[in-house]
Amino acid sequence: MEFGIQLHNMEPAQYRANAQAAEALGYDLIVFPDHLVEEGPERQYDPKEPAYDHIAMAAAVIEATKKIRVGHLVLCNLFRHPAITAQSLMTLDRLSGGRLVAGLGTGWTETEFKMSGIAFPPITERLRMLDEAMTCILSLWKNERTTFDGEFYHFKDAILWPKPIQQPHPPIIVGGGGKGLLRLAAKYADYVNIIPDAGKAGYISLEVVKRTTDDSFREKVSFIREEARRLGRKPDAVRISNYIFAAIISDSREATRKTAEMMAPMFGQTPEGILASPMTLIGTPEECIVELKRRAKDWSTSQVIFTGAVARDEELMRKLHEDVLAHV
């Protein structure tokens, strides 16, 4: 199983230091989000939180590291024309010596589009745009020339040189939870990071968070498998990635129970439900090891990405890896 860290909302020196720490500890992947403003449930955000260009930050982290894979979870298709996205990601792949993971998504945070004036079409249109964009990006990476006349994007004998180091292309990860996005994952992706669906609403609602459960995660994995089969891909062609918003290592089973009881109302779950929630990992090291192995068996997860306190605190990052992840 692969383990990654999502870095965000920090200063450049801390990005580099935390990425180097993750690499030294044995983590497999560093990823970044792609936002003008990072929003929590029910449109909550801090206007003073740093929001750097994470393509530039990926380049900085690539230069500061030697072997850890680097990418995005995920780039917003609406922020860049696919020709620019293809060029930027090719550049990162070559800068890194072939360590890029290419993260792509529709965009979902309506707030940042309203404040910037960037067009924010309905989710069905954004999905069609991403579908076309991914077709164009893959063609630019693989073919000498690209001609494409779509609903949104138009290329005529377009070139991109050089090509990415990784061939036929860097691994693609998409993130989301709606069926439309999962269909695109089944069509194009090497990894799908399953999170609460925010695409249609334009924000993360607590109601959707409540519905993000052990059972709903399994259903989405099954849906992806069936879609991949329908499209002629092997059912397991898309690897399953689990994004953990909160990882809490407790000292005892009693402490685990108390933490679950405290957090359950925030997620609209029972204490038992919160311990099995795709959004959390709570327990003693031994309990966390068992839970991650259960997810690999029941959900087919082969990648887990952590954010929050673990990503900001090197000591927490170390404890998680040495006490839990190294034993999974």
Can I get a quick summary?
The protein is 45% helix and 18% strand.
Percent of sequence in beta strands: 15-25%
What does the overall shape look like? globular
Structural class: alpha/beta
Strand order of the largest sheet: 1-2-3-5-8-9-10-13
Number of strands: 13
End-to-end Cα distance: 8 Å
Please, how many domains?
Answer: 1
Uncertain runs with pLDDT below 50, 5 residues or more?
none
CATH class: Alpha Beta
Q: What profile does the largest beta sheet have?
A: 8 strands, parallel, barrel
* Count of helical regions: 13
Order of helices and strands: EHEHEEHEHHEEEHEHHEEHHEHEHH
Helix proportion: 40-55%
**CATH homologous superfamily identity:** Luciferase-like domain
What name is given to the CATH topology? TIM Barrel
Architecture overview:
With 328 residues, the protein is of the alpha/beta class. The protein has one domain: TIM Barrel (Alpha-Beta Barrel). 45% of the residues lie in helices and 18% in strands. The chain has helices spanning 12-25, 54-64, 82-95, 110-116, 123-142, 179-188, 206-210, 214-230, 253-267, 271-275, 285-298, 309-312, 314-323; strands at residues 2-6, 29-32, 69-72, 75-76, 100-105, 146-149, 154-158, 172-176, 191-194, 239-244, 246-249, 280-283, 301-306. It has an eight-stranded parallel barrel with strand order 1-2-3-5-8-9-10-13, surrounded by six helices. Helix 1 crosses helix 2 and helix 2 (54-64) packs parallel to helix 3 (82-95). The longest helix is centred in the middle third of the chain and has 20 residues, at 123-142.
